[in-house]
Automatic annotation (TrEMBL):
Alphabetical list of NCBIfam families matching this protein: nitrile_acc (TIGR03889)
Residue ranges of domain Nitrile hydratase beta subunit-like N-terminal in the record: 17-104
InterPro entries (alphabetical): CN_hydtase_beta-like_N, CN_hydtase_beta_C, Elect_transpt_acc-like_dom_sf, Nitrile_Hydratase_acc_put
Transmembrane regions listed in the UniProt entry: none
Record Pfam families: NHase_beta_N
Domain of life: Bacteria
Official protein name in the record: Nitrile hydratase accessory protein
Length: 126
């Protein structure tokens, strides 16, 4: 669970996080989930905020070099790519495992009626 103190610490350590006077702001639920995952991994010692900020900056630079207009709308896509990269580099999970679960969630989301909880099933990994 994301605490206000943890969110405030992250926002202070990484000034580029979209935020208002009350804390981080998100345009979609998945952005808040990605943010919370990074907070949890930081709290568990997987990476430091300076390490995260450097990896995020590198990811944004790569995206800009590839044509990302950097309008702010893709910020959490970069956040998620950074999260995946650090998790793989730190040995928490392989890129292959991350992609396997991403694809399974995508499959599960497509078969789930709007408004219903998404649940992974074995067939989602096919």
């Amino acid at each position: 669970m994301m605490t206000a103190n943890a969110a405030a610490a992250a926002t202070a350590a990484i000034p580029s996080i979209p935020h208002d006077d009350e804390g981080p702001v998100f345009r979609a639920p998945w952005e808040a989930h990605a943010f919370a995952m990074a907070l949890t991994l930081h709290d568990r010692g997987v990476f430091t905020w300076p390490e995260w900020a450097s990896a995020l900056a590198d990811e944004i630079k790569r995206a800009q070099a590839a044509g990302d207009p950097d309008t702010g709308e893709t910020y959490y896509l970069h956040w998620l790519a950074t999260l995946e990269g650090l998790v793989a580099r730190k040995g928490v999970a392989s890129i292959e495992a991350l992609h396997r679960y991403r694809d399974a969630w995508d499959h599960a989301a497509h078969r789930t009626p709007h408004g219903k909880p998404i649940e992974l099933r074995p067939e989602d990994f096919g």
